[in-house]
Amino acid sequence: MPPKSLHISEYTVGWLCAIEEECYAASGMLDFRHSDPYPAPTDQNDYMYGEICSHNVVIVKLPTGHTGKAGASRTAVLFSESFPTIKIYLFVGIGGGMPWNSFENKPIHLGDVVVASPTRTGLPAIVYIIDQPITQLVIAVDRVARRYNLGDSPFHDHLKLLSPENLARQGVKYNLDKFNRPDSKYDILFGPKSKHHNGDDCSGCARSDIARQSPPSDRNPEFHRGPIASGDSVIQSGEERDRLSEKYKGAICFEMEAAGVMFETHCLVIRGISDYADAHKGYKWHNYAAATAAAFARQLLYDMPTTKKLEAKRLSAQPVTARASSSLRTPLPIAEAPDSGLINDPEEVPASSAQLSNSANTTGVSAPVVAWPLAPPTPPEGQKLPRLYKRDDKY
């Protein structure tokens, strides 16, 4: 069965990646892939389309060689112009991490996930610039973290989508183990002044400089929330990392692109920790860190209701009699209804119309406003229409 094609206006989630590994991990998280939408976007960005838990998702990667704030900004501007209906932006990829999360008082290891979140003391999610993701995304992150901490999260099932078996099933023919977790012996934290001497595995580096032992081999990735520092260059010095973290309000992750897209998209920045932003920065953990960040983003979308789900929930909250009666005859739009002086029984509408109104304002789903004609039709046996009152009656 060929992949379906949607109208361009049906896409509501934008997923940005900076490098190729992040883009591969993102595509592996899709439930279904879509063919190009209609009308097709006319900008120069390279897009992929698909679906995650009923969310229609557009994935875009920054052009090769154009990473950093300037390249990210150009990509984001074209992205938002070509897809004006996108409401949620996720910037998912890898970053360098602080060894310790001072906000949640726990260690950060390679392969963990850091999500840019404002702190309890009011510090912003992204520093170097002052900006925040939209509140809806911050709430969704809280929900994902709570479920994970309670052992009620299928995060590891999402991560298995990038296993060699699943990649082979998707038609990938080479490098099937690229997203496997590296051995914990390669998760080595050296002191901030330590110098790197040999290879990607630090086999020639001084053992006396090791500041923390490797974690257990069966350790699962942890989620961390706190400020992410977005700058102009890669941090490859433990001393510089510590200095910048202290200067920028305890930032626990460092990356280069988010500052270029925050003003345009107010995106949620999700980073898998691929190194400790020190002289021993290597590439061994890049793919796995990209995978854990992508798995977190997928779980986030699973915990965020789509517009269709919100509409279904709203309809299911209506009393059966109201749903049945409204199906008997199409109500007239309020502007076309005759001035009968009648209004619907308030007992037949959802209990909290204020909540329904608030939901409509935040999701784009309009609450139904109906006005029946003067002589409503006779309902089928066993059903009844809402009671009607004169406007000046007391009820």
Question: How would you describe this protein?
Answer:
Residues 215-287 form the Nucleoside phosphorylase domain. InterPro entries: NLR-like, Nucleoside_phosphorylase_d, Nucleoside_phosphorylase_sf. Residues 352-365 have a biased composition (Polar residues). The chain has 395 residues and is an alpha/beta fold. The chain has 2 domains: 8-304, Rossmann fold, CATH 3.40.50; 315-390, no CATH class. It is built from 11 helices and 17 strands. The strands form 4 sheets. Strands 1, 2, 3, 4, 5, 8, 9, 12, 13, 14 and 15 form an 11-stranded mixed sheet that branches. It has a two-stranded antiparallel sheet with strand order 6-7. A two-stranded antiparallel ribbon has the order 10-11. The protein is globular and about 80 Å long. Mean pLDDT is 78; it is low at 310-315, 320-377 and 384-395.
